[in-house]
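Supplementary Methods S3. Input chains for the assembly prediction are listed below.
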Amino acid sequence: MTDRRRINGPAGTTIPPIFEDTSNKEDANSVKGRTRAPDAVRKMFLRTGVTPTASGSAYLEYESSAKSGVSGIKLSCTVHGPRSLPRSSPFSPHIVLSTHVKYAPFATKQRRGYLRDPSERDLGTHLETALRGAIIADRWPKSGVDIIISVIEGDQDRASSGPQSDETWDMMNVLSGCITVASAALADAGIDCVDTVAGGVAALVQGPSEDTPPSVVVDPIPSEHERILGACCIAYLPTRDEVTNLWFKGDLPASEMDLYTKLVENGILASASASKVLVDCLKDALA
Amino acid sequence: MSTTTTTLAIPGQLLGSTSKYQPGPGTHIHESNLYASLLGSVRIVHPAAAPTTKPTGPVKRLTKLSALTNQSSSSSSSLKKQSSSPDQLPTISVTVSAEDNHHNKKREILPEVGNVVLCKVIRITPRQAVVSILVCGDTVLEAEWQGLIRVQDVRATEKDRVKVYESFRPGDVVRAEVISLGDQANYYLATSKNELGVILATSEAGNTMHPISWKEYRDPVTGLTELRKVAKPY
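Predicted structure tokens for the full assembly:
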């Protein structure tokens, strides 16, 4: 369905003009590799209470990559509610959770429309699953809560002119951010949760040359690696030691079962790092 | 009141064992340990100082069986030792206080069974009065919740003689008690107590009226009386 009520931008890609790098090519290549340790996540900035009109809100920003033109992640989350359900909905003895993830039109290189596309709905469903395991739903009967996340910047390499190989890896990073930021906003809104859920991503990446064995890294940036073979995004409750959502994608050799568990372990590691930021942020909000 | 504000808590933080504390609002139990479920400050209320606390959740009506088991359990525990009884444990709760919250807004609360609410009558039918709940306990609600006072819940006696239009009129402010979470849209309310009923009414002429009896309001200007289910003044 096309959106006919607004003046839409061009439907296809609008790639800004790319000028040839004045600096030499070797310099650009040297920044290409990963600058962090394999088990280190990017630096994060998280703050609650940024939107005064919402019941709870939070803002999350990931440090942008060392390579110029690669944007980080910027997410803004608002929580509205608990509020009364619409008249038409049936009786619910617990809180009704609804999650909306929307990319800003300018968040990615491929311009996004105003209507939610399937990938955004998919992110919303994953987020709902992740949060449902953390919320104590029966504390709020007959009420609903809306969790709305705007992706302001969507973790993409804008400098490369070619089409993105696969957007899923970016979506995974965005989802892990969404989980962390929604958890902070829920705590800010005063909705009962069993724990502070946090998201993390681990990936199996191809080494710089073809004959080196693939390695497992956390918080991958696609532009920093030659090729990503598989990744998993995890929503993790640190004090309960439980996983509420697991999203796995990629092409892994079926013979190596260790790889799967290793990816999940590293995903949990990344979630635990995000959780530290989350806990510090919530403590700051109280002080 | 010997409340002690000790520390700040974030959701999922361990507060203590269930053998040491009773769970209050903002906490939950997992594997016989108490954890915080809200972001806020921890309050511990000792039972000696705690006044007869209002039940926090929906209260089950006492059946004869449950009354019997309660009695036997309380008598047996009092026989054993005073401190082992769950009533003697301090209650631990996590509250989001307004001064902690930097943007100084109140936390939304929901009407619960047993709460006394103030509401405004929206429309009446022969079977029920539809009201909008404005205040729950002492807090003004942010969201709008709809309530229903059915004709059988208006008063405790002579229920079959009750007529809704002789009890409420649209625009009246009513003090009522929540008796059920109701159906998908409405909370069910009752005014079947002396101190519940219409507390503010305007006459057909548009003047604020005075209560003159348990079922009448009088307009001070025109001198006419109108029928209402009048709340007994405190």
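Chain B has one helix and 16 strands. Chain B has two domains: 3-49+67-104, 116-227.
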